[in-house]
Design a protein that fits this description.
3 helices; 12% helix; Ribosomal Protein L25, Chain P
């Protein structure tokens, strides 16, 4: 399996809030590349290509991070690790890249995508999801981008736990396998109450 995506970044010569602010004014995002051997390399990335690769690879797909250091280029397999955004503007403020050894296991939180409409919901039940992702372990290139959870066959008062997930053969859970991720429950009696939790008054004839 080949690494399909590449992000080109520049090694940063300076650090600090002032320099980071000047970079952002030029649509450059400061970041850190954490190498497998523990070395931290400060980098800067153009905002638009960075946003594009975040959308394409998410947090679980390996891509090539090409670092330009005074015209000396090196390429490293990496993952998106942490993304910081402005609290109210649609803008990135900082990015962390995590270098991986393709032959060593990693543990990542993989998104769960729920599909279908359960039998229990069709009979009046309520679908309750408890997790948006699940922590899995495996080699970086084997890690799935997402896990599909088909709820179609779920009846009322049934659940799906981590141990019930259909995972690739070379991927295993890295969390409690009895952890419930979705259930179909009977409707609560409180749904017949008004917004204050009190019985809604019955209509009376005028």
């Amino acid at each position: 399996m080949n690494i399909e995506k590449t992000l080109h970044v520049q090694k940063r010569a300076q650090s600090g809030k002032g320099h980071s602010g000047r970079l952002r004014a030029q649509n450059l995002i400061p970041g850190i590349f954490y190498t497998p051997d523990g070395t931290n390399i400060p980098v800067e990335a153009a905002a638009l290509p960075l946003e594009k690769i975040i959308a394409e690879v998410g947090r679980t797909t390996v891509f090539n991070l090409e670092i330009n250091d005074n015209n000396n280029k090196s390429t490293h397999p990496a993952l998106i690790w942490q993304v910081q955004r402005h609290p109210y503007k649609i803008a990135l403020t900082h990015i962390d890249f995590y270098g991986v050894d393709l032959n060593k296991e990693v543990k990542l939180d993989v998104p769960l995508v729920f599909t279908g409409t359960s039998r229990g919901v069709k009979l009046g039940g309520v679908l309750e999801t408890y997790r948006e992702s699940v922590r899995l372990a495996g080699k970086p290139m084997d890690m799935p981008k997402k896990i599909l959870v088909d709820v179609t066959s779920m009846d009322i008062n049934s659940s799906i736990a981590v141990k019930d997930l259909q995972l690739p053969s070379n991927i295993k859970p890295a969390c409690d396998q009895n952890l419930v991720i979705v259930s179909v429950l009977t409707k609560s009696k409180e749904e017949g109450l008004d917004g204050t939790g009190q019985e809604a008054p019955a209509a009376t004839a005028g």
